[in-house]
Specification:
Structural class: mainly alpha
Shape: elongated
Distance between the termini: 213 Å
Order of helices and strands: HHHHHH
Largest sheet: none
Radius of gyration: 54 Å
Helix content: 55-70%
Strand content: under 5%
């Protein structure tokens, strides 16, 4: 009966599919599992990589910077500065940077002939640091007293305007003083004339004794 064809209208029973091969399922799921495990490993290792931060450089102020800033603040608010440091060295020494008799050419020649290369580089860095510090102090002083400079310029402009408006009053005052001087001269002249006439009258009234 298996060889006879089925009658019309009858259904042919469907044959069941064979189960998938374990080799095929393992090979198909291998890359997915590997990729998922690699993703998990990356996610697990990401916080550890991002948690490492570069060390923050410590900003330690240079020696003497706090005292200098404190002196600038005291000077700005009119409280006076601290005691000046004792000056060392000869005031007439041409090799002293703070001396009025400092000779830059002699200092330079002595420095390049007696110092090594590391010493020259160190001295250059010291000069650069001092120059920048002095420049920053100059800028801070100008900035702190900027409003005072503006107020002084406004005061000078107001005084100039008021002085120009007082020119007419000064002319009137000068004319009044001239008139007062003229009247004083006339009064003094009349007083002198009256006193002279009185003296002559008194002398004429006197009778000579016989």
């Amino acid at each position: 009966m298996s060889g006879t064809p089925s009658p019309a209208g009858s259904r042919v029973p469907s044959t069941a599919r064979p189960p998938p091969s374990p080799l095929r399922s393992a090979s198909s799921s291998g890359p997915i599992a590997a990729s998922s495990s690699s993703n998990v490993a990356q996610l697990g290792s990401a916080p550890a990589a991002t948690s490492k931060r570069p060390p923050i450089a410590s900003s330690t102020p240079p020696p003497g910077g706090k005292a200098r800033a404190r002196d600038l603040l005291r000077k700005h608010y009119g409280l006076g500065v601290g005691a000046p440091p004792p000056r060392t060295g000869n005031p007439a020494d041409p090799m002293d940077l703070n001396s009025p008799a400092f000779d830059a050419k002699s200092y330079y020649e002595q420095l390049i002939t007696t110092s090594s290369l590391p010493a020259l580089l160190k001295r250059e860095n010291e000069f650069i640091t001092e120059i920048r510090q002095l420049d920053s102090e100059r800028q801070s002083l100008v900035y702190n007293h900027h409003h005072e400079l503006i107020a002084a310029s406004d005061t000078i402009a107001a005084m100039k305007t008021r002085a120009e408006s007082l020119d007419g009053d000064l002319d009137l005052l000068r004319a009044a003083f001239s008139e007062i001087s003229r009247l004083c001269a006339e009064v003094s002249f009349e007083n002198n004339a009256a006193s002279d006439s009185g003296e002559t009258k008194n002398s004429s009234d006197v009778v000579p004794a016989t």
